[in-house]
Amino acid sequence: MKIKSILLFTVIMSSFLFAGCDEDDKSEAKALVSIKNDFNNPEMTYQPPWTICKSSYLGQEFGKISIGETSPEFEVTPGLDYVLMVAAWEDPDCNPENCLPIATKLEEEVVDGQQRVIAINMPNHQGSCPPEGVAPIPEEAYNRILALWPEYDFEPYETRTENIECLPDEE
Amino acid sequence: MNKTAATIFLLIILAVGNVFSNPPVPPKSVKSEKATGEKIKSLENTKVSTSAPSVDEHKIRKKASKASAGSENITVTGKIKRSKPAAADTLEVKGRKLREKPSATFVEALASESADIHVTSRGTGIHGVASGSTGGIYIRGLGGFPNSQILMVEDGVPDYQGIFGHPIPDAYSSHLIDSVTVIKGGDSVLYGTNAMGGVIVIKSRWLKVPGLEVIADVQSGTFETIGYNLSGLLRRGPWNFAVFASQLETQGHRPGSGGSRLILGFAARRCLGDNTELMLRTKAVHIDGADPGPVTHPTPDKWFDVWRFSGSFGPVFHFRKGTIQLVSWINTGIHKLYDGFHSVDTLAGITGKIEYNINSKLLFTTGATGEFVDGFVENLIDGEKTYPPSAFTPSVFGQLELKPLKKLELTTGARFLLDTTEGPVFLYKAAAGYRLNRNFRLRGGITRNFRQPTIRELYLPWPVANPDLKPEFSLNSSAGIHFESAHVDSHITVFRTTARNLIRYFGSWPTAEVVNIDSYKVDGIEGALKLKNLGPFSPFIMASVQDVGRYTKQNPDEKLIFGVDFKLPLKSMTVLSTLSGQFVRGLYMNNYSRDPMDDVFFLDFTLRLRLKERAGYRIEPYLNVRNITDNRYAWVLNYTMPGINILAGLKMELK
């Protein structure tokens, strides 16, 4: 009788713990993400004319995104990361001399099953030689951009303010 | 210490417990049918265990049919305390024990009683509200900032801020508390919303026998800390009164870390005949202070000022097989911040509950609750007021505690409620306990809990709101083995905390969003070993190891609590002392293991000289020394805790 009771109890205990396993045990988590070029957001006091020429988030490239447009939706592995970008100032054609590395101000997060549009706008970016009020891009994010798109031949982090687009326009 | 090693360590704790065990201690059971007259007399006011699982102490009248010495009928009237249900996954702490701890606040004292409870702190007594506040309570990985996944229940009444949905950690003082029960893994079946990760049930003090008791406790210490605590309890005839005042003022160890806390309370209970009581409780709390900011960028001008008022009223009817209780309550608060924020929130409700002993093996509890939340916010700078919609949640609940076999206890229950956004919600729980022998007990349980979205999350755009949000749900399970003997008290519990539909903020203004999306899982193991009655020294050690996944924000991986109690009765006094410490590893300032923080280690010491009672009064001087190794540690990044600091006090008790 005692052994039976203990066995019964063990079964009950095990069932409690196994019942605690729910649908969270998913091995292939995914999220759907698109990126919006929100630099023309009218709620801001200033709309910087950045065209996003290249973009990448959590290892997925999102391509070129013109001002006011939204990229196609891509599947990504959920996580936390900066949106890394190359953006061209007042140049919808993305000529390299007008381009600079920029990133989102904060690391953006998506979780399993989420469908999210990440908006890139004035308060949500940081750059190499930003206008006043924009934070400088972290070195780690800057170097990742250089590695992703070496064809732009950007200056190293230490001399990032010497990128052509950072230099004052010639009179 | 890696996790495997920690697990082995916890297993060793239990094995050591077994080695130190004494021969089985006979249970304090009552066999009144065969008791002698002398034995029956001794039953009065004796704690005994009953076969039925359950809730609280209750009055019984028992008729002994035959005494062995004779055959006359003898009636015994007394109080029976039910034993702790074998299925319960709870921590019970006496108020006195909390009061005698060197911890600066009530919630910190609670966190030093179990390794799976973690509380953040920033100084010597004030946790604060809004930015820079601490007092986040994590129980088995759930909770934290804000504390809306942990529910405080004070004298049967849920206690939280109506707009933000979290308790105010500064609103409690150990000096007013009779006992605290922490229900680990939560219990939304009995307590409703927010009881997701855990419930902290606070029971305030009453005088248990007729008479008068006045306790005054004054304390002073480092950082110009001054505390006054006064409680008066009176029981006379059908009346029972409790009055209390608790005040703490401190300058803090750096600018902005000081503040003050005032708690005033009054309670009255009146017996109406043999079977009915009326109960009234009121409480007022005032907290003011500031956010000191990180040490690198101090912000001592970010002040806050909070007033909270609460009251509850209702009758309790005792009948032969149980009780019927009706409680109505209201809890309102006024919060003001340095930036012009002003809010007034109200929480009100009514609960009717019946506890019915169907027989000695079956206790049925059922009831209904209606809870109302309302409030408004105002910007004192521009005068703009926002009146979000209020919410009313009706629910019914039931719980059955049964004992199908002599050593097996089962508990099951369910709550059904109507949520404003989700519609019908069904919550449930089940637990089982098995007493292997007089020393060992096995238990396990599962519970489905929930948290309703707060008014802020639904309607207030800081930085965004979403009126379509639905409740969060958790499914918590645990299993454990407990060992208790005359000299050893130990247990090991494995637990799994899962949650889904979590309400999360993404992005930043003006494109932020708040949605129900995330899920969460924590696996862990927790244990304790306490040795007792082995002479003047009683060592204890508690440990917890958990895998919190990416939810690492101030949610540590490992916690170790250790120490030794010392008690030495002398002719004129009893010397009481405790040396205790904590070691916490795996602390991060953010999720995804970002911004790792240094391990926390500190030692505290307390010494009390409890002088013998003379002419109805007793004096007890005491000394608390915190952080005696003067470590520079922090629970919150750059909110460094004070170095070594001292609090000396004098407790005077008049009976």
Question: What characteristics describe this protein?
Answer:
heterodimer, A: 171 residues, alpha+beta, five-stranded antiparallel β-sheet, three-stranded mixed β-sheet, 2 helices, 16% helix, 27% strand, elongated, B: 655 residues, Maltoporin, Chain A, 2 domains, 22-stranded antiparallel beta barrel, 55% strand, disordered N terminus
Question: Your description of this structure?
Answer:
Helices cover 16% and strands 27% of the residues of chain A. Chain A is α+β, with helices and mostly antiparallel strands and 171 residues long. Chain A has one domain (31-163). A 5-stranded antiparallel beta sheet of chain A has the order 3-2-6-7-10. Chain A has a 3-stranded mixed beta sheet with strand order 4-1-9, with no helix packed on it. Chain A has helices at 2-19, 139-148; strands spanning 31-37, 50-57, 60-61, 74-76, 79-81, 83-89, 99-103, 108-110, 115-120, 126-127. Chain B contains 6 helices and 33 strands. In chain B, a hairpin with an 8-residue loop joins β13 (239-250) and β14. Chain B is globular. The model of chain B is unreliable at 1-71 and 77-81 (pLDDT under 50). The interface between A and B is large, with 37 and 39 residues.
